[in-house]
Amino acid sequence: MDFVDSRNKIKSWQQALQPGARLVTGFFDPMIPEQVERLRRIAGDGKLVVLLKTPPNACLDPRARAELAASLDFVCAVVAETPADANVEALPAHEEEAPLRERFLSLVREKAAVKA
Which domain covers residue 58, as residue numbers? Predict the structure, then answer.
């Protein structure tokens, strides 16, 4: 098995553009299984370019979130910061993320309180 350093998928906006790749935006803070499955469905038989957005009160720093997204085999590139002037038509995965993120963080807080 060949080892591929997925961090090489983290690119600038100009480097990330790939013909035929689908663009998707998201927070992925943290990345949970439901999001991975949704991204897999969006990618279909192709590849995804992930454009990270930063949520309010982020749990993970942008680099950690970029590395998580880059580790997915169907993701061909991750852009940690998209220029404001970029004309991007991307699927907004982050709109469906908020309830998943809150549910996950609620479970984490609940388990932490039980252990304390």
Answer: 6-115
Distance CA 85, CA 41 (A): 28
Instruction: Strand 48-52: give its sheet, edge to edge.
Output: 10-11, 75-79, 48-52, 22-26, 91-92
In a domain, 1, yes or no: no
Q: What residues of the chain score a pLDDT lower than 70?
A: 1-4, 82-97, 116
Please tell me the total count of domains within the chain.
1
pLDDT tens readout for residues 59-81: 888 899 999 999 999 999 999 87
Name the nearest CA neighbour of 9 among 36, 40, 47: 47
Q: How far is CA 26 from the centre of its chain?
A: 5
